[in-house]
Write a structure and sequence with these properties.
Distance between the termini: 21 Å
Number of strands: 7
Number of domains: 1
Low-confidence stretches: none
Bound molecules: zinc ion
Order of helices and strands: EHEHEHEEHEHEHH
Mean pLDDT: 96
Radius of gyration: 16 Å
CATH topology: TIM Barrel
CATH class: Alpha Beta
Length: 188
């Protein structure tokens, strides 16, 4: 999947990728687009992101719009909804919505900037989330986003992560294809 970080300069103190950029990339690939929106009002952007080619839209539980309304708006467009949590947000915040989404994205750095170090206590949080999902007998992806390296990958996979988001690890490498393979298999 291609993961896009959309930022509004309000929810996070930075600007990120906009729908026209995503639409431009859609012209050259059919790969699945995992669009992570770090915005205060996710409802405003759903239509534009779907039109741009999003297959999955992940919004933050800390955003200002009602989560059930955002989830409904995403599903109404035939796109999969995901819910993201910033590092300080407890898992209990997303439990009411677990049966309505396809993915939980656990941020392992503060949202807004690339290149930050992975917060080690994220591993326990992934394990806790996996236990809750198993107890509820749900099929949900657990995505980990922020500071994921080839060293972190096997640890995160062991705890139950099923999707690893990597930017710096891949784009900062001389051998990006090798890094992707290592992340995929949890080897270094
Ligand atoms: Zn992201």
């Amino acid at each position: 999947m291609l993961h896009f970080d959309v930022m509004d300069g309000e929810f996070v103190p930075n600007f990120g990728i906009s729908p026209p950029f995503i639409a431009a990339v859609r012209q050259i690939t059919q790969v699945s687009f995992d669009v992570h929106i770090m915005v205060t009002h996710p409802l405003r952007y759903i239509n534009a992101l779907v039109a741009a080619g999003a297959n999955l839209i992940t919004f933050h539980i800390e955003s200002a719009d009602a989560p059930d309304e955002v989830i409904s708006a995403i599903k109404a467009q035939g796109v999969k909804p995901g819910l993201a949590l910033s590092p300080k947000t407890p898992i209990s915040a997303v439990i009411p919505y677990l049966s309505d989404v396809d993915l939980i994205l656990r941020m392992s750095v503060e949202p807004g900037f690339g290149g930050q170090a992975f917060q080690p206590n994220t591993l326990e949080k992934i394990a806790e989330l996996r236990q809750i999902i198993q107890k509820l007998d749900l099929r949900l992806d657990i995505s980990v986003d922020g500071g994921v390296t080839t060293e972190i990958a096997p640890l995160a996979i062991d705890q139950g992560a099923t999707i690893l988001v990597a930017g710096t690890a891949i784009f900062g490498s001389q051998q990006p294809e090798t890094v992707i393979q290592q992340l995929r298999t949890g080897t270094t």
